[in-house]
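Data deposition worksheet. Section B asks for the primary sequence of the deposited chain exactly as it was used as input, without tags or linkers unless they were present during the calculation. Section C holds the resulting structure in token form. Section D is free text for depositor observations; keep each observation to a single sentence. Incomplete worksheets are returned to the depositor.
Section A, Depositor: J.P.
Section B:
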Amino acid sequence: PPTSDGLAGGTGQLATGATGLADGVDQLATGLGEGAEQVPDYDATERRQLAEVAAAPVRTTGDDPSTLERALAFLAAFAVGVGGLVTFLVLRPVPAGAVSSRSGPLRLALRAAAPAAVVVGLQTVLVTLVLATALDLGAGRTVAVAGAVLLAGLALAATNQALVAWLGGAGRLVSLTLLALSVPGALAGTAPEVVRTLVSATPMAPATEAVQAAVLSEPVGGAPVALVVWALAGLAASVLAAARERSAPPARVLALAAAR
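Section C:
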């Protein structure tokens, strides 16, 4: 059992500890008081200025176009580009039997382009409905978007037709490569300069610009003219390819006749 001397010693240690705790609490209170005195006292104007400075890094101006709208506009142009590529993965850029056909090169090229034009028309309706619903476009902007998507799709389809007509499978590979490069070139601000320069020299650049201008109600600039030039150039190249097919050497004409 504890002795009276041990109990007295423990009580003394407890008293000493309590005294040390009281001294520590007193020092903490003194330090907090001194710290509170050093906190600056800002008036209402100063507090408002500090809040504006703190919010500045994440603020965007009302004049900046919506990132979502730009992304959706690019995807619309990309979709019709893919449609033109897929069409000439399935169909021939120059009709079979062009060698023995009585139709002229222009009619042959237009006959091959007709299915692609139908695909572009259907895509235009679908893509425009999606954009109009997602972005709540008014009637005027919806019509402008439809026109831009249709023109972009026709230009891209004509370019794909010409590439495949002249280069065959290599032309399809070129189209696929340019479409793939257009993604980082349009959506990633850190894309290499060589990629942006290469994409800017393809019909994907004016196609994207035209659709974005229609979606954002911005000045369209020369994008529609560039698309018309690309479409006519693609058609002209396809006409030349059809003319080349019709002027086959005699040996090929005999081979085709024998195959019949």
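Section D:
The radius of gyration is 36 Å.
Confidence is low (pLDDT under 50) at residues 54-63.
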